[in-house]
From TrEMBL:
GO cellular component term, pick one: plasma membrane
Chain positions covered by the region annotation Disordered: 187-241
The organism of origin for this protein: Hydnum rufescens UP504
Name used for this protein in its record: Glucose receptor Git3 N-terminal domain-containing protein
Transmembrane segments: 14-34, 67-87, 107-126, 138-160
Source taxon at top rank: Eukaryota
Lineage of origin: Eukaryota, Fungi, Dikarya, Basidiomycota, Agaricomycotina
Coiled-coil blocks: none
Subcellular location: Membrane
The keyword Translocase is annotated on this UniProt entry: no
Membrane topology (UniProt): Multi-pass membrane protein
Length: 241
């Protein structure tokens, strides 16, 4: 969720804490109403599992499901928005168009989730309000189809945008990997292997290639030698006998 902010051990602890919290939360949400309100759960048809039709039960219907839809949508918009803004700033500073496209692609995830939960939430609010207008049957069916298609929408988003986030191979990822690989695996070829030799040292300047360390250097250190300009010389051959 926050790239670069947590190390590996912190991510594992956070994931374990979230799993424990989810199981504990579901257990409490199911057991507390069932033990305090008689005939709270039952078969209600196509929608909810709460059989009570009182005003308090309607509030519990919203608070036990749809309020968390809205909370998740709001948190997703805020967190993804923060990440996208930071990525856009980095992409603009570095003139990285690939990073810019990735940031814009991430916006679709919270937008898709909000679009999935909004119709069904609106239908339920209208159904809970006995004095207000009732939603038409076609709109109810459409809202049910949208929320039931959330898995297909997630797969479609992954195919269209997720491939840029490193989950699978892509041409852009290959180019980036090639740039990183070329930056540190370039073979080092000595000038002698290419037929280049430094000019002979003279009294007027130039240092021989085998010059020892300077006196002020510690005995165990070696000064980096910056050679004079190299000139091409043919390989030396031994004199004839």
């Amino acid at each position: 969720m926050f790239p670069g902010m947590l190390n590996r051990s912190q991510v594992r602890r956070l994931a374990a804490a979230m799993i424990v919290f989810i199981f504990l939360f579901i257990t409490l949400m199911v057991t507390i109403p069932a033990t305090t309100i008689p005939h709270y759960y039952g078969d209600t048809g196509a929608w909810c599992w709460i059989t009570d039709t009182s005003v308090e039960a309607s509030r519990l219907k919203i608070g036990s499901e749809y309020a968390y839809f809205w909370l998740a949508a709001a948190v997703s918009l805020v967190l993804y928005g923060i990440i996208v803004v930071n990525w856009l700033r980095e992409a603009t500073a570095k003139r990285d168009r690939r990073r810019h496209r990735e940031a814009l692609s991430m916006v679709w995830y919270p937008i898709a989730f909000t679009a999935e939960v909004f119709p069904i939430s609106l239908v339920r609010l209208l159904q809970f309000n006995r004095k207000g207008p009732r939603p038409r049957h076609g709109f109810v069916v459409l809202a049910a189809i949208i929320i039931a298609s959330s898995g297909a929408v997630n797969v479609l988003l992954w195919l269209l945008t997720g491939r840029r986030f490193g989950f699978s191979d892509s041409p852009e990822g290959d180019e980036e990997e090639d740039r990183r690989r070329d930056s540190y695996t370039m073979p080092m070829i000595s000038p002698a292997e290419r037929g280049l030799h430094p000019p002979a040292a003279t009294a007027g300047g130039g240092l021989p290639i085998s010059h020892p360390s300077f006196p002020e250097d510690p005995p165990t250190t070696q000064r980096l030698y910056v050679p004079e300009p190299y000139v091409w010389m043919p390989p030396r051959t031994p004199p004839p006998p």
